[in-house]
């Protein structure tokens, strides 16, 4: 009712100004209309936010497209403006919600409307999501939730701009003991020291390992060096009773499992 009443008042003032012939009144009325239109837009935005939040709680997000989830996330970073255009622009740039959260903070800021505050808030949320996913892996046999392992690794590594070599250390029941970054390299190379990997496994009393690294190029195809290094780690680990379950290469365009490709 409030919105319709306001619009009727704007129309009446415009008509009155035009009929009066007063330039001063016309200027005043134009200013009032601009101000009131701004209020209506603000009210519309607020109403949309309230409706979207309520729909989320009513449905628990079932059926929500990625852009509506992203809209909700942007509400706190952008307290008044419509967040839908930015949500859609981010998805157009990065593809999906997971890839938006995983994107480099500098790349996020290349999207029009995504300033430092928004980019930082998205990266904080990505860090929280990674922490939650890691906690889930601590609770169970990783092989009973392999999709979660892959999702966790992709969230952590898919958009890194330098190669990073990580190791998931597992206990006798294949529960996660620790996920540690062993080395960070350049855009196309990371030095790996097999004895250091196995030494750390012994310190943690790990029974098994999953090796993980990323290819910033976007292509998850293993190189000869990747294959050779994997077999060296496997041989050193096996000699001490530690199993290497898999080596996963993560990239923006997919992943490669050495186990699935019979490379291990």
TrEMBL record:
One of its GO terms (biological process) is proteolysis. GO terms for molecular function: metal ion binding; metallopeptidase activity. It comes from the Bacteria. Residues 142-264 form the MPN domain. Signal peptide: none annotated. InterPro entries: MPN (IPR037518), RadC_JAB (IPR025657), RuvA_2-like (IPR010994), UPF0758 (IPR001405), UPF0758_CS (IPR020891). Keywords: Hydrolase, Metal-binding, Metalloprotease, Protease, Zinc. The keyword Metal-binding applies. Belongs to the UPF0758 family. This is DNA repair protein RadC. It comes from Bartonella apis.
